[in-house]
Each structure stands twice: as C-alpha cells, then as structure tokens.
Specification:
There is one protein chain. By secondary structure, this protein is mainly alpha-helical. It contains 15 helices and no strands. Helix content is 71%, strand content 0%. It has two domains: 49 residues; 214 residues, MetI-like fold (Orthogonal Bundle). The radius of gyration is 25 Å and the shape is flat. Helix 10 packs antiparallel against helix 11.
Amino acid sequence: MATGARAIPRRWQRGHFWRVEVPQQLLKHLGLILVGVLFFFPFAWLVLTSLKSVQEIFLFPPTILPQKVVWSNYAKAVTAIPFLQYFENTMTITIGKIVGSVLSCSLVAYGFSRIEWPGRETVFVLVLATMMLPFQVTMIPLYIIFDRIHWIGTYYPLIIPSWFASAYFVFMLRQFFRTIPTELSEAARIDGCSEPRIYWQIILPLAQPALATLVLFQFMWTWNDFFGPLLYLNDPRNWTLALGLLQFRSSHAVAWEQLMAASTLVTLPSVIIYFFGQKTFIQGITTTGFK
C-alpha cells in the first residue's frame, strides 16, 4: 500500500490538490477575469454612452447605466453621414488588401521556407530589415510616386502595396510553413507535382490557422486605418468609416451621442469576426514558430 501511495504523483494526491492546485487555479482565473474586465470596460463604456442623451453624457458625477435608453442615437448616426456608402468603401479596401496579402505573403513565405536557392537567408534578412522603417519615413516618397502615376484620390495606393507582400506577414507565414513536414513536399514531388501545385494544394490547406491570423490582423488594421485614407483620399464620396466619423465634429461642437453610436457600429465587425474566429486565430498564434 505504501509503495502504491508513493507511486501516485504528489500533484494527484487529494489533499495536495485541494491545498495547492485549487488555490493556484483560482488565483490564475481571478487574474484573467480582472484583466478581461479591464480590457472590456472601454468598449462597454462606449456602448453605454451611445445609449445616453446629450445631457446625461455630461452629468457629474457620471452615470454608468443610462437613465433612459435613447435608441434613436443609432438612427441619427446612420443618417447623419452616408454610413452605408462609407461601409461599402471600407469593405472594398479591406477585401482588396486581404486578398492581396494572403496571395503575395504566402507565396513569398513559401519561397523562403520550402525552396532552396542561393542567398535565401541573406535576402530574408533584408526583407526583415524593411520592418525597421516606419511608415512616416516612406510616407512622402510614396505619396510623390502615387501622385506622379495619378493614383491620388483612388483606392490604388491603399490596396496595391498589399499585393507585394508585407515583411511581418511573410515572417509569420514562413515560421509556420517550416513546421510542416518536408516529407509531404518530397512525396508530392516524387508523384510529379510542380512547386505551384504543392504550394496551392498541400501547403495552403495545412496553413489555415496562420492564414486566418493574417486575415484577422489585416482586417483590423485596414478597418481601423485612419491615416492612409486621410492621406490618399481627397473626395468625401470615397471616404472610409474611420474618416466618416470626423463629420460628427464641427468647429463649435461635437455630437457625442451620435459619435459614440457610430463608433460602436464601426467597432462591431472586428469584435464579431474575432469572436467567431478566435479558436483558429489563437491556434495560428501559438503554433507559429514551433517545430
């Protein structure tokens, strides 16, 4: 009996479990709950403020729950600006950038991870070095180039660069592609598969978690992008939702209740997409870079 008791790991013993394991797990979950509440509070405050009247927004001390729910703020926010037009413009840019990023970044990452060629590692280091240049450094040269080819005022400056791969996404996909066994590619080559077919029919289906992570990141960055559209779009009819929110501000006042309602509507797509894709997204983050 004693030998059997000693054979049981200490962490499986009942007394140790209730004295040590349970309090540790409770502390961990309590910490996660507090962090979750901390991050959720700004969004909750945004939603609650969008349901308040103008007078209640400026009450002091402020109220957390609205004394009277004003649903009309959302109707006014949608009709005060061409919301649907801005939504369509934003979706056009977002879909164009997502498709371009998925195709170009996965293709470049495949070349860096699955094909042997002279100078591969050197070129990869040069690609990563471009991440050190912030957008503010290349902003003026890019604007001059796009202006000379008459792209200012169109969606091309916002969409076309994503079709030439991003160093960050190339690095992320390269790390994931390297976790895929090389035996799969070698077996396909023996059966007569070409490199494009291996890339399209073998590597990409296995890289769905990493591709989903890329899509989510690109969606959030493009959907919330303010500076890019502000720089290149000079026609209000082509504005995105991020730029459209500026119309709730005037020289003398800000329609805070409508601004909060419109901001809630703009934020919802990102929240919904992450909610439904969080499992794939987390899988892509946790498995990228592990052999």
